[in-house]
Specification:
By secondary structure, the chain is mainly α. The protein has a single domain, classed as Arp2/3 complex 21 kDa subunit ARPC3. About 70% of the residues lie in helices and about 0% in strands. Helix 4 packs across helix 6 and helix 6 packs antiparallel against helix 7.
Length: about 270
């Protein structure tokens, strides 16, 4: 049996790849708006409007990427696989419910992105978080940001070096899983920071303040409220899950990819019964 990489269900031709890149950069810019918001005094009162604009824009951005990836790059077999993995991820999320950072949704997202590629990982990140939010009553203004952050994690999993195998691959995935845990927490803290830190505390977002000052305030805020607690718990969960379940899950996903034969053209038997 060959150990060649299995075919990937979402084929990234130049145009979808460009759309995916631009959408990822725009999404990151939307997360980082507090660090670059320098309103004039007359416009300072409207600074809080920015995240609400992004809440409306992010779903459109995600839909554009999904529509572009579906234009000849994803078939019925890939959609079926996407539905199954989204349902599994949605079922895993309530098991930990985020208590102490224990979230099982991310390790499968990392492994699926690893096997099925960056395009599939991006789509799975959005569909997994959206589906799980419906099941856990987690729909709110934070959901588009969670979807995009998870999509970026799945995208990154698909961009990891493909030739690494064995124990080295598990070590690579553990390292990425730990990074993804802190990355997700950092992004989610960044978008909510102006709301949750208050208006007149040492950690508050100050519209128009120098970048260095706001960056220092945010760094202290996210370390105290997220990094030392939720994010570390999420990182440990990802690492343990990948070490314990990673080899078996990777084998199952790669076997499914080969059996699905995503690269094979669909043919119909013309013989009469």
């Amino acid at each position: 049996m060959t150990d060649s990489p299995p075919p990937r269900p979402v084929r990234l031709t130049p145009r979808p790849a460009l759309v995916l890149t631009v959408a990822s950069l725009l999404g990151l810019a939307m997360f980082c708006w507090p660090l670059f918001a320098h309103p004039r005094p007359a416009a300072a009162a409207h600074t809080a409007d920015a995240p609400f604009v992004f809440m409306a824009t992010l779903p459109v951005l995600i839909l554009v990427v999904l529509a572009e990836l579906s234009r000849g790059g994803i078939d019925a077999k890939a959609l079926a696989l996407l539905g199954v993995l989204s349902a599994v991820n949605a079922g895993l999320r309530p098991l930990g419910a985020g208590t102490g950072g224990i979230e099982l949704v991310f390790f499968l997202l990392v492994l699926a992105g690893r096997v099925f590629g960056p395009g599939f990982g991006f789509v799975l990140g959005s569909t997994s978080l959206f589906t799980s939010a419906l099941l856990t009553a987690g729909v709110g203004p934070w959901l588009p940001f969670q979807m995009l952050a998870s999509s970026l994690i799945g995208l990154g999993g698909g961009l990891l070096p493909r030739k690494v195998r064995g124990k080295a691959e598990i070590a690579l995935l553990v390292g990425y899983g730990v990074f993804a845990a802190y990355f997700f927490g950092l992004l989610m803290s960044l978008w909510s920071w102006p709301f949750l830190a208050g208006d007149s505390t040492p950690l508050s977002f100050v519209p128009g303040a120098p970048l260095g000052e706001n960056l220092h305030r945010f760094a202290v805020y996210t370390v105290l409220t997220s990094t030392l607690g939720w994010d570390t718990g999420r990182a440990i969960t990802n690492a343990v899950a990948i070490v314990v379940l990673g080899p078996a899950v990777l084998a199952v996903l790669r076997r499914a990819a080969r059996r699905a034969a995503f690269d094979a053209p669909v043919t119909f038997d013309q013989r009469q019964l």
